[in-house]
Amino acid sequence: MTTNKISCILLAGGQSKRMGEDKAFLKLDGQTFLKIIVKKLYEKCDEIILSINKDEEIYQKELNEFLDKITFIKDKNPYDGPLNAVASVADSINNPYVFIATVDTPLLNPELIDFYKEKISDYDCILPVINGKCQPLNTLYKKDALEKAKEVYKSSKSLMSWIDKLNCLKLYEDEISKTDKNLFSYWSINTKDEYERLRSIK
């Protein structure tokens, strides 16, 4: 295991209930959220684990030029939340660092990956705090932390139940905004209104 390589888990298997359609295939500037984010992660990560709940071929067609780094894994318990997805892919991670991204944040700033890697040191993860709220996604973990996710998932579906078991370094807006000026990496597009607002500012 090379000491500085990074895997990425991209969570793309949600039900998108509030949006009413699969957020992975919403478009911004002519490209799907899925392709926009994978393109960013491809430049920074050594492997991408795509967590899905639909037929693999749907995603392969969209991501044809990135397939050399992508592994598709279906959740063990479909539509059971992000902790289920993390636990489902944990055994497939081949590198010591793991960036966990989500498909509903197309404005993700990939430079955060390098920034968090510089900061993580002996911690299990970086825990961004934006507007007073902890952000367990679009951040960096150590591979060993995912073993704890598997254990926690046996009794809880909550990501924060897992985070509470980890030694996390909290980073706040003042530090994160030096890399991601508008903190758009933590703007999740969950509703039609948010999607329209996103398209209006781009």
Automatic annotation (TrEMBL):
Its cofactor is Mg(2+). GO terms for biological process: Mo-molybdopterin cofactor biosynthetic process. Residues 8-165 form the MobA-like NTP transferase domain. Transfers a GMP moiety from GTP to Mo-molybdopterin (Mo-MPT) cofactor (Moco or molybdenum cofactor) to form Mo-molybdopterin guanine dinucleotide (Mo-MGD) cofactor. It is found in: Cytoplasm. This is Probable molybdenum cofactor guanylyltransferase. The N-terminal domain determines nucleotide recognition and specific binding, while the C-terminal domain determines the specific binding to the target protein. It catalyses: Mo-molybdopterin + GTP + H(+) = Mo-molybdopterin guanine dinucleotide + diphosphate. The keyword Metal-binding applies. Belongs to the MobA family. It holds the Pfam family NTP_transf_3. The keyword Transferase applies. One of its GO terms (cellular component) is cytoplasm. GO terms for molecular function: GTP binding; metal ion binding; molybdenum cofactor guanylyltransferase activity. Transmembrane segments: none annotated. GTP binds at L11, A12, G13, K23, D75, D104. It is an enzyme of class 2 (transferase).
